[in-house]
Amino acid sequence: MQDLTQGSVPRHLARLAAPIAIGMLFQTLYVLVDLFFVAKLGDSAIAGVGAAGNAQFLVMALTQVLGVGTMALIAQAVGRKDQADANLIFNQSLLIAAASALATLVGGYALTGVYMRGLGADAGTIAAGTEYLHWFLPGLALQFALIAMGSALRGTGIAKPTMIVQMLTVVLNAVLAPILIAGWLTGKPLGVAGAGLASSLSIGVGVVLIFLYFVRLEKYVGWDPAMFRARLTVWKRILRIGLPPGGEFALMFVYLAVIYWVIRAFGAEAQAGYGIGSRVMQAIFLPAMAVAFAVAPLAGQNVGAGNNARVRETFRAAVILGSGLMFVLTLFCQWRPEWLIHGFTSDPAVIATGGEFLRIISWNFVASGLIFTCSGMFQAVGNTLPALLSSASRLLTFVGPAIWLSHRPGFELRQLWFLSVATVALQALLSLWMLRGEFRKRLPAGAQGVVA
Prior knowledge:
By secondary structure, the chain is an all-alpha fold. It has 16 helices and no strands.
């Protein structure tokens, strides 16, 4: 356990954010490694895997419910020096993870076909996406255990073990991908099925490794058979904090699904270009997301300890660090975004679509960083509903206008990207306004006391 209620706030923020960023980078490489080899299979395979990969946002929505609730409650318990409550939260989170994994497998295999038929641009895209998801679903189900254990460590102020596990699993995925997708060494290429299988096997190894860390090295929280039975009052505590962030990712799933549905009229090349561009954008977002992930346990422990001034200082430091990083990345995407797409495909139409997407969408990078940081602060204070309301605002400002634009004569993809930039800016302003109100209510200047 690392006490974050004492010492330099910027130093704690950097110490936490660095391994989180590295771990998230390697996590993103799961998708990028698969995408690199899948790209060799053609535009329909790229589009299919890209559309199917968006189902991960729905699973991420569910893992966020578990992860954010677990992390926030354990961080606050650590700040209160209440080890018993932290351990109870951890064990109940593992129980929820097991139930969620089972639901993911049952629901995923039942609905994959319906999902892909609704988004695929052609029969080839639908077939590729369906096959990929069938093999990737076990890995998605295992994410719940991985998130539960990683969030518990983050709540206690520890980030390095999760980073190391993510690095090792991505290395394994990078080794398995060419063997399973392209048939290196075996001579039996599995295509998109190999991409899903490589990720599932790698995630499974990651779960085993982080479980062994808890068994052998972790002392503050750990598996306790006496606590491993359902306690609904604890589940309600986790869900109260975790459901709104889960709703945020569910809305992201809807948002991405709408984009794929709108642009399918432009063909598999357009869906492939957007698929690559959006994955690259997710990698670009990593610095700001790492800062936001570091904000939550740092501010959360200080919320639990009643250190209001340090909570505010955490937010200021995160805004400066995150915005600065995102501004630099914006400049790069204004310069040569096509370079980032060319590494995955040589198709001029795909490169043009992906490059234009990154050049325009990069104007919302700083605003996105602010949204991430605000979400981390909402998690820390234990009221995540404002973050959900902020995300929901995009259903009004983006989805409706996007569908309307798509039916207008002369509709172009760039109109969709400009609309996205405008709506993200509005969302950032709304998040900042609601966080200011939360600070006034829960963190009065000069006052101390634990936030409920």
